[in-house]
Design brief:
Layout: H1 3-32, H2 34-37, H3 44-64, H4 72-95, H5 106-120
Helix pairs in contact: 1-3, 1-5, 3-4, 4-5
Amino acid sequence: MDDTTRAKYLSIALVTTGLIYIFAIYPLMVWIWPSGWGWAPAQPEYEQIIVGFYATLGVFLIIATRNIGAYIGLIWFTVCSNLVHATIMLFQVLIDRTELANLFGNIPVMYLIAGILWYLLPKHKKCSS
């Protein structure tokens, strides 16, 4: 896949991810599937921090579609932070089986988002002075 095609699909992935981060995380954590997206017992303070962080990131991911080249660092941050967050949660699930539903909820979604964005990142960076 060439960089032009990657950029087109990356824009779609960034908007989709941004909208998920802005509009879906809170309902998933609180109403739709709390066991797969939150922690038991519920931790409202933690959930507010997570929702605020991901909503802010979502807004910037959508903004990034205007000039992907200028936001490569933000996209890499999204890839890496999803990998780190999902891996920490994976280890927490292995230690605390009461959180097993996260293994089928947010953990695979974070790995999937990281994988898609990584795959769609431009592979040929042109350097300018």
